[in-house]
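DM from R.C. (forwarded with permission)

"hey, sorry to bug you on a friday — could you get me a structure for this? deadline for the figure draft is monday and I only need the backbone to look sensible"
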Amino acid sequence: MAKRVAVVLAGCGVFDGSEIHEASAVLVHLSREGAQAEVYAPNIPQMHVVDHVKGQPTAEQRNVLVESARIARGNIKELAKLDVKGLDALIIPGGFGVAKNLSTWATQGKNCSISKEVEDVLRAFHAAHKPIGLCCISPVLAAKIFPGCEVTVGHDTECEQWPYAKTAESMKELGCRHVNSHVSEIHVDPRNRLVTTSAFMCNAPIHEIYDGIGKMVQEVVRLA
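My reply, with the result:
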């Protein structure tokens, strides 16, 4: 039987939704591992819509589920309909949508709130001891919900290669253990069954990001 893995998206586009290359890499690697991806997204308005050419918010309004359906080629379900009993694992790609639509991390940092639907899903997989894969910024969700967990978002010292390293410090303040890692590496928290990798938290060649996500997906499927 193929492993059934829920993939939760947060829109379509790095600055206001899911990072498209990360989401695509997750789906490609799940296929390569012989797993069946089931894509979900919350049926909610986006926090805002960003013009990805100008890098500036616009007056437009878009829906997270509708935008996520672009990545899923229309084969998507509302997050509210996710049933953990029929699924073997969960993966959440990164992108600013995680910090804007799935949580309020973008505006409140460690004092953020997590969308109730998203928190309920994460807690359900955690309670069922089913593996959870998180990449890029999405490990902040685990840091907020599971105190004492171990994750990586890359490095904790800001530099040209690691422009978002302050995220790691905020996660430490929430009580989680951050483990520095290279973009092509993963970190596994066996107690919480969390598998994390930094992806686009690092200024790295896209193939290295792709490889790191591949290792994450492979380990999630192995643990499932």
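R.C.: lifesaver. The chain has one domain: 4-223.
me: no worries. The chain has eight helices and eleven strands.
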